[in-house]
């Protein structure tokens, strides 16, 4: 879509302007880019229908930017962007993807050492040239090398949150063909892994040729790797590959089982089949008659019948990692993992009172449409100045606004909640900062007045393990703290976890009744699946939050739920699956 391309250009303009120390404009471009990215309608359609005026009505987009959008739609580029790039021809996206490198560093690296891309950067760092630059030093040079190594390790994998919306779009398009009978995603996408190598889609159809021709003619394809009657592979503009497989109906279930994986799960499953005198493959489950080299088909039309014939309960795709799910399925002991519709509200939302994009009212409207019973506003607090964190006084003012909105919602519950015979409410929390010494940046008597308190580490993330663990545990002991946000601090493809002793954190959480967050933001997914499993086993409660700072981000909940399912979490483990009263009691 044009939206993403223009958003990318706007982000780059913002970075270039920031390098030149221009005031305000960079933020304006960033905001416009964020809004473009989250727009569901293609910008070209909006322009065709309503002209320049319609563009100006998009939040964050004024006259000047509307004209730039039109320029892009007509010429495929934006002159101002080209001029900025000519002056400093660097690969901005690549360089700023290294943790700790901001636009001003990019500028200085280019001016002093002519560094244009990641390769130049690595060479200069390894040669010890960066430490000699003013404002850089040895520590920065080491951090840069660490950042590059981290990037390389995650290369070639894409975030679930980048991929899934596109997969849904492709599947919807294919579904519109009447020749498609069955269609589903498989592979790591179906298992909802946090990162994805490539996308696998399986179909059955009455007319393979027509479907495949349609598939390879979709917009956004930059390469066709292969086009055959059973398998077609393409690469999309976003950089990842999609394999489409056409299957006979009789094999659909066994193929879906096989291509969903994981490989490790499949290996164990195949062995179980062998021990029973059966043979399992993507073509079906067969009975092998010894000596005769004869195979009789016994199952394969659906996945469920394959598992059943092997004597297993059906494991949800998110569980299929050979982490004990096969043993559990053999003994009727699979967990009853939470469902995608079990979440009743979201407790980690940034409003426009701090760095967020939308008002509390706008966010609440979306939450109600999603069928939520409550929404918790938890803006950053004062230590985070760049995020316009709120101080004690502002928190008190915000409480008044929330009270006002709440009385409004109570008088007039929306239709969906009327049907459920319940009302919607806004809760007030905050996301406070755990300072270096483990104290919280907001006074206790202000924390006390909130419905709940989230706190997280947002500074000095490179502390040694013992110190960091102590810091977090001290914060957990503050009786006002209810939820620890993004507990390990990792950013996918960018930053490692903090050095922490997670077992100690779990013990402290249990002791202090602190709830650990499963942050659904695509780059975070923190806690991850493994840690969720450990928390559950330790009897620690969790909450799945989005950390939304735009109303469109509320949909990220799906990714957090997916990881919770991968971590075997059940409704009893996740407080925002509980009845509201019970949850509020826990947060008291
Ligand atoms: P990805 O794409 O790296 O995120 O991960 P997957 O799991 O989607 O892996 P992919 O696309 O290479 O293959 C899709 C599925 O096909 C995989 O989950 C299991 C199955 N599969 C692929 N190769 C093998 C194999 O060598 N042995 C077995 N048993 N299954 C395999
Ligand atoms: Ca795959
Ligand atoms: Ca594949």
Strands, helices and their partners?
Blueprint: H1 2-19, H2 25-38, H3 43-56, H4 63-75, H5 79-87, H6 92-96, H7 103-113, H8 118-126, H9 137-153, E1 158-159, H10 160-175, E2 180-186, H11 187-190, E3 195-196, E4 199-205, H12 208-216, E5 221-227, E6 231-236, E7 241-246, H13 252-260, H14 263-275, E8 278-281, E9 284-289, E10 294-299, H15 303-309, H16 325-330, E11 345-349, H17 360-369, E12 374-377, H18 392-411, H19 415-419, E13 425-428, E14 431-433, H20 444-448, E15 454-456, H21 465-476, E16 483-484, H22 502-512, E17 515-519, H23 529-537, E18 542-545, H24 557-566, H25 580-587
Parallel strand pairs: 4-7, 11-12, 12-13, 14-15, 15-16, 16-17, 17-18
Antiparallel strand pairs: 1-3, 2-4, 5-6, 6-7, 8-9, 9-10
Helix pairs in contact: 1-2, 1-5, 1-7, 3-4, 8-9, 13-15, 21-22, 23-24
Bound molecules: 2'-deoxyguanosine-5'-triphosphate and calcium ion (2 copies).
Short account of what is shown:
Its EC number is 2.7.7.7, 4.2.99.18. Helices cover 45% and strands 14% of the residues.
